[in-house]
Amino acid sequence: MADVVQFRLERMVDELDDLERRGIFTRREISEIVKQRRKFEYRLKRRSPLKEDFLAYVEYETQLDALRRLRKKSVARRETENDENGAKTTKKRSRKSISDFAGVVRIVQIYRLAVTRFKGDVELWFKYLEFCRQRKNGRMKKILAQVIRFHPKVPGVWIYAAAWEFDHNLNVTGARALMQNGLRVCPNSEDLWVEYLRMELTYLNKLKARKVALGEDEGTLVRDQRVSDQKQWISENKDLFMSLDEGTGNVDGSNVENMEPEKKLDLFREQGLRVLQTIYSGAIKALPSSFILRQRFFEILDGTDLAQSEDMREEILSDMKRDFSKDPEYWDWLAKLEMTDSSSNQEMSEDIKLSQMQKAVQVYEEALKIVPSAMMFNRYTKFLMDIIDPQVGENKNLEPSGHIEHYITHLLTVYEKAESIGCLTEDIACKYISLYLQLGRLNEARKLAEKLCSGKLSDSVQLWLLRASIEVRDVTRNSPSPSKADMLSLFELLRKILTKASISEAESLWLMALKLFVNQKQYFEKVVDISLISVAKDGGGENGFSLPSAVINFVLQKDGIQHAREMYKRFLALPRPGLALYRNCIELELNLAFVGDKDCLANARKLFEAALATYDQNTSLWQDYYSMETKLGTSETANGVYWRARKTLRDSAAFTALTKPL
């Protein structure tokens, strides 16, 4: 191995001498380069080199070559300024030498070794191709042939090869052949079909652009979407543009006398339509159940100006309706298609936008007749909510104005329809109630929540949580101190929810209950009893929200440290109190121990010992214990904890890396 590495380093002598002779690198820098290259060469020659070894070598050589180019420019500029015969000297020094191309050759060789060893790594092949493309290396065609031979089932390989032939070699025939071969091998690739169509239409557009440059034609195959939208709306509302003299005007407002003569047949637009029809028919035959493929073809058609494009558009839409009429995603896309142009074009008149909104609503209404599902209702309500207020937030009240009020009423009707036919899911129900809250109609929201919680969604935790928050808001909005009857009803409702939901699901509700009843001793003790039962059932939690910790903090603020100690002892007596509770109790005792309370230090040690009895492999817990002893204990107790941790932890490397014995 050493002989091979030495041989490879000796082959670099001419390059390194040239770098020193031209003043690009100093001898000391060249020594460092040799040292680094020797390290990389040894890594590549070991028994099982990693892919990261090759990539690290490539990265080093790439940065080195970039530095060489900068140094070369700097040296040339300096020589030009200092030498009286600067032009001749610069010309002489700017000639290509071995150091100018040796770096690229070495990187290519490293990549060749890497892909030889890791033939199945497609990402590595693409990095190799990208480097050769950027440096315009002559091996590009050979590498493409190799990667196609090793990975014929990867569509991206065929697309990359065809794009290189099309853009770099300007070889349309070769690019077309590669795409067609790729489609034979990977007929189920959506990307291949779409990119093949894009390539063919791009080629036709280039031919048309050349005709335009020669003055033999005009226009391109790219559609002006804004003009087409205006014409479509005018044609649909042509009765608004009827001239008083029907013999002197037409529906689009132009004059018959000024109409241009019939244009000659546009061969490029005709050819583009034939290409699209051919590829489209082959694509849907290969992938008849792919909705995304049809959608992408439609978007391409919408962005190009082809002959009889409206007929082709209708054909695609008809096929999609036939094959995907039971798919809610299709109806959602079709409705949003009516709104896409109005959202992207800010200059469109308000009448056109309202017309398109109405069309989208009609599409959704038709969809509900064919696919009356919860998913369809969810997409419909989301669409209407986006129209009402795209930036609505949880605490923001809606302010109906103009046509928005109509859509709010329509949205409430849709929610009622979903409820009547049994398509009201937990998510839709919560949005239904939230809409009333955003409108400021709290009483309607409260009645609706009560109705839904007593119906089919009675097991929905989120719905019960929303109902509880509404009841609390309704009781506390009028007076800061609710009556005893209100407090009793709230407690009964919260008790019903808290005993049903898990601790993680009802986190916000637990905090709300503790805050609400903290000054009501009778109810607070009952909430604590419920929390004990919940922790015994679900556990106290290892990370994140800890219900016992929340209860202890409220008790500490309300009754002091002694009552807090009694409370955490009750929780620690449960089967699974949780690591978060131990940490919270330790922190509580340490805060007092730092003030000078020796009893708190003893309590903290007991808590650490109790926690380690269950979590003896927790490295951070041992580190916290050792840190406490170093600050508050003695060197003897600190060393005792250190050596216990070394002996107990199966992997003590992390512990010893951050701690040392005293």
UniProtKB/TrEMBL annotation:
Family the entry assigns: Belongs to the UTP6 family.
Provide the Gene Ontology terms for cellular component: Pwp2p-containing subcomplex of 90S preribosome; small-subunit processome
Can you say where in the cell this protein is located? Nucleus, Nucleolus
Q: Name one GO biological process term.
A: maturation of SSU-rRNA from tricistronic rRNA transcript (SSU-rRNA, 5.8S rRNA, LSU-rRNA)
Report the coiled-coil segments: none
* Keywords from the named record: Nucleus, Repeat, rRNA processing
**Domain U3 small nucleolar RNA-associated protein 6 N-terminal, chain residue ranges per copy:** 9-84
Which InterPro entries does this UniProt record tie to the protein? HAT (IPR003107), TPR-like_helical_dom_sf (IPR011990), Utp6 (IPR013949), UTP6_C (IPR056907), UTP6_N (IPR055347)
List the Pfam families.
U3_assoc_6 (PF08640), UTP6_C (PF24892)
Q: Which GO terms describe its molecular function?
A: snoRNA binding
Species this protein is from: Acer yangbiense
Query: In which broad location class does this protein mainly occur, judging by the first location in its UniProt entry?
Result: nucleus
Ranges for domain U3 small nucleolar RNA-associated protein 6 homolog C-terminal: 359-649
Q: What is this protein called?
A: U3 small nucleolar RNA-associated protein 6 homolog
